[in-house]
Write a structure and sequence with these properties.
alpha/beta, Rossmann fold, 7-stranded mixed sheet, 6 helices, globular, binds glutamine, EC 4.3.3.6
Length: 194
């Protein structure tokens, strides 16, 4: 079975481990460089991106994660995970950094206090039918995307909320909370294609 890690510094780690297990992967929480070296693919969960950023440096994981991304490891980031995969962010916490890898600008907390959380059905061309039932929780959005970035989904107001660049996929929403497994399956399928 493919060995798929979930970056386990902060956030909804267990839900992602469960989805990966249900898809037949050997699912591993990643808190150390040794654990990172043992996985073939990585999920970066939702949570608080500034905290995950800080802890990644405390745990000595920042440079190893960046190196694996540069070496072509498939990575899927949800919500805070999308923020951490973005090359550029706006409305970051003071000093906040990202791993980068996807040539996008991501605005944190883009939907503001008036709609902190909402759910909607999104059509995602690469996934086909049925549409994705997506939960947005203090979600970011992609405000600029470079030419190498494929937009996978947008809201009706035009906000880009799912992107892919090579083996990196990011969504502003949380499929692991609504029984949606197709993004994780896409991540694992990149291992079979290598
Ligand atoms: N607002 C959070 C952040 O900036 C992301 C929220 C989430 O992951 N659900 O990191």
């Amino acid at each position: 079975a493919p060995r798929a890690g979930v970056l386990a510094l902060q956030g909804d780690v267990r839900e992602h481990l469960r989805v990966l297990e249900q898809l037949g992967a050997d699912a591993v929480p990643v808190r150390t460089p040794t654990a990172l070296a043992s996985v073939d693919a990585l999920v970066i969960p939702g949570g608080e991106s500034s905290v995950i950023d800080k802890l990644s440096r405390t745990f000595g994981l920042r440079e190893p994660v960046r190196a694996r991304i540069a070496a072509g490891m498939p990575v899927y980031g949800t919500c805070a995970g999308l923020i951490l995969l973005a090359d550029r962010i706006t409305d970051g916490a003071p000093g906040q950094q990202t791993f980068g890898g996807i040539d996008v600008t991501v605005q944190r907390n883009a939907f503001g206090a008036q709609v902190e959380s909402f759910e909607t059905d999104l059509s995602v061309a690469t996934l086909g039918d049925p549409p994705v039932h997506a939960a947005f929780i203090r979600a970011p959005r992609v405000t600029e995307a470079g030419p190498g970035v494929e937009v996978l989904a947008s809201l009706e107001d035009g906000s880009v909320v799912a992107v892919r660049q090579g083996r990196l996929v990011g969504t502003a929403f949380h499929p692991e909370m609504t029984g949606e497994h197709r993004f994780h399956a896409l991540l694992l399928s990149m291992l079979r294609d290598r």
